[in-house]
Amino acid sequence: MSSLLITNIGELTTHGPQGTVQHAAMVVDEGRVAWIGGAGHLPMTDARLDVEGRAVIPGFVDSHAHLVFAGSRAAEFAARMAGQPYTGGGIRTTVSATRAAPDEALRANAARLLAEAARQGTTTMEIKSGYGLTVADEERSLRIAAEFTPETTFLGAHVVPADTDPDEYVRLVCGDMLKAAAPYARWVDVFCERGAFDAEQSRAVLRAGIDAGLRPRVHANQLSQGPGVQLAVELGAASADHCTHLSEADIKALADSDTVATLLPGAEFSTRSPYPDARSLLDAGVTVALATDCNPGSSFTTSMPFCLALAVREMRMTPAEALRAATTGGAKALRRTDIGHLAVGACADLTVLDAPSFLHLAYRPGVPLVHTVLRNGAPLCRPSQ
């Protein structure tokens, strides 16, 4: 791979030791950031990219997404907008459609959504299973997901399938299903929530995953206060996701741990639910991430800029806090130190904005501001795409 000099950067946000650099330049070599400096005395490289005064930020790290599925739940969304409350029960509708879909359809849909995310500045995306809920369907969901990302998550414990004994299903998840899924997964996850899996069932799933070499993360406290956050901290989970309904004890537990609170404002937007109290989390010193929760039922968006704007407007995060949560925070939720920032030595995953500052991501919500996206220094998305 040839070296690349990116010149005429109006504002460079590194989230590294150099902070924010005005009138900056950057050298990418072998897919990594090799040099950052001012506009004078530029190094010699094999190629140049003049971004003409635009802002450059780290590529977004979307650490929570459900992309392997089939079918639509648009009618369910319309019903919620007409006043029907969200309960999570619609997951089984997607399970039926996903089981019936051929591999090619699932693969094509995941590829389409990943391309959509890339056009909005996302360079790393986690993908969960969870819409198969049989040994064979969970295995194939993760096999397909692994074609697109190393950040794959086994979520066989999404909901209990219809007409199935919950305890028997947990034994299946912890046994044959985990054995089939583990070769294609890095993470294990569970929906610890009323109507899904209780604390003991969730603990059993997570411990089985840990014993199989997977790292834990938890869907926690989305619909009500419950044991999910405390369980995530107890087991050293990388992330507790949703965190919509938290007690003071939950916030303290997160603050005293290295478990990231991953907030998913697209879900609250799409279900007309209360937003998480990001301000209390941040003020307590909790590491916060933002992610899309892209799924066909409760958050059908791939747009990290949209979620960032929601975080600023609805969750009282500053634009700088929201950008850090959508990049560095997401990387921490995936236990990655090579992405989410643009310090020397990091992966050259970056987004060029068609704006003079990252502030425009929240200042101009809904406007397509992504100009160019590089992953490992190579074009992932260009203006014509």
What does this structure look like?
The protein has 385 residues and is an alpha/beta fold. The chain has two domains: 4-59 and 341-381, Roll (Urease, subunit C, domain 1), CATH 2.30.40.10; 60-333, TIM Barrel. Helix content is 34%, strand content 22%. It has helices spanning 74-81, 91-100, 103-118, 135-145, 166-181, 199-211, 228-234, 248-255, 265-271, 278-283, 304-314, 319-333, 360-363, and strands at residues 4-13, 20-29, 32-38, 47-50, 55-58, 60-62, 122-125, 127-128, 152-157, 187-192, 215-216, 218-220, 239-242, 260-263, 288-290, 350-353, 370-375, 378-381. Helix 3 (103-118) runs parallel beside helix 4, helix 4 (135-145) crosses helix 5 and helix 11 (304-314) packs across helix 12. The mean pLDDT is 96.
In short:
By secondary structure, this protein is α/β, with parallel strands linked by helices. It has helices spanning 74-81, 91-100, 103-118, 135-145, 166-181, 199-211, 228-234, 248-255, 265-271, 278-283, 304-314, 319-333, 360-363, and strands at residues 4-13, 20-29, 32-38, 47-50, 55-58, 60-62, 122-125, 127-128, 152-157, 187-192, 215-216, 218-220, 239-242, 260-263, 288-290, 350-353, 370-375, 378-381.
